[in-house]
Design a protein that fits this description.
two-stranded antiparallel ribbon, Phosphatidate cytidylyltransferase, alpha+beta, Beta Polymerase, domain 2
Length: 324
């Protein structure tokens, strides 16, 4: 097995990756997801540039779960109202998140909805972002369930492609020295989950990659090229990123800072959610039980005063292994 010469970022890397992402974004979704997205658009009106659908329900089609949406707006004031404290909170620590329910063909469909501005999203998918949560989520399969116009659709494809390229950049440095694309993606998602206060099972990362293995394999090379990372390839699909001496170690030190920052951001968002997340207590209890198997029975006072209850709840979840 003789590796080829290292590949360099191709001039058409951006076009190749954006084209692949645009095709993925356009794939059909469950009608319930489209109907719920239109509810969100009716609320935000012309301020809504795009609605992105991602997460576990997209993968499984299980409408008994909670659908995950990101609403991307031109102006936070256009969504929240000018001069409101919700708009200020979203500007200082994005995104604002809320729990939304909608009736669809005689059943209740539930969604967790995050709201960000275009500018915030663009900053969040860059490799130098301290917050890993946005690009890590949108490196995974995603659909564009609403675009205001063709320009908004092109923007969405470019922004999601940038998230995938950022993910590939980090995967090349956090993953093995050589191996198949799946090994790099698996290593990446293990690192990104560890950088958050996740309530996920230990094999979550491999499950994410395994669900769409061909998709991750196909995107890895153009994403590396767009990220400016060369690589050597072999006929059996094994890759070896072309990294300078010491580059991997330097990137891992930078990642340690992101791991610390990620947990602090998660704590800050939990505190913020106590004031801004409508119906958030019920959502959190559902999420914990669904992903860790730990049932969170909350007393009436904990529902009324979630911020005061948070330390005890976190301690309980940590002791039960729901938080790692």
């Amino acid at each position: 097995m003789t590796p080829t010469a290292p590949a360099t970022p191709a001039a058409g890397a951006a076009e190749a990756l954006v084209g692949a992402i645009a095709a993925e974004l356009a794939e059909p979704v469950a009608p319930a997801a489209t109907a719920l997205a239109l509810d969100l658009v009716r609320h935000g009106g012309d301020s809504v540039a795009a609605v992105l659908f991602y997460g576990s329900v997209l993968r499984t089609g299980d409408l008994d779960g909670v659908l995950d949406f990101y609403v991307i707006v031109d102006s936070l004031s256009g969504w929240h109202g000018r001069g409101t404290w919700q708009a200020l909170a979203n500007r200082l620590l994005p995104p604002n998140v809320f729990f939304h329910e909608s009736d669809w063909q005689g059943r209740t469909v539930r969604a967790k909805v995050a709201v960000m501005s275009r500018r915030q999203f663009e900053r969040a998918v860059r490799p130098d972002s301290l917050d890993t949560t946005i690009w890590a989520r949108f490196a995974q399969p995603v659909r564009l369930v609403h675009a205001r116009d063709a320009d908004a659709g092109r923007w969405a494809a470019g922004a999601v492609a940038a998230a995938v390229a950022t993910a590939a950049w980090w995967a090349a440095r956090l993953g093995p020295e050589s191996g198949p694309p799946a090994g790099y993606w698996d290593a990446l998602f293990r690192h990104t989950y560890a950088a958050e206060l996740r309530v996920e099972k230990a094999d979550r990362a491999s499950g994410i990659v395994g669900h769409a293995a061909d998709r991750y394999a196909a995107l890895f090379r153009p994403a590396l090229a767009l990220a400016g990372t060369g690589f050597a390839g072999s006929g059996d699909g094994t890759l070896r990123p072309a990294l300078a001496t010491g580059e991997r170690e330097a990137a891992r030190r930078r990642w340690q800072r992101r791991q610390v920052a990620g947990k602090l951001l998660n704590v800050a968002r939990l505190v913020k959610a106590a004031f801004t997340f409508r119906n958030g207590v019920d959502y959190i209890a559902w999420k914990v039980e669904r992903h860790s198997g730990v049932r969170l029975a909350l007393a009436p006072w904990q529902r009324r005063w979630p911020l005061l209850a948070a330390p005890g709840v976190l301690w309980f979840l940590w002791r039960r292994g729901a938080i790692r």
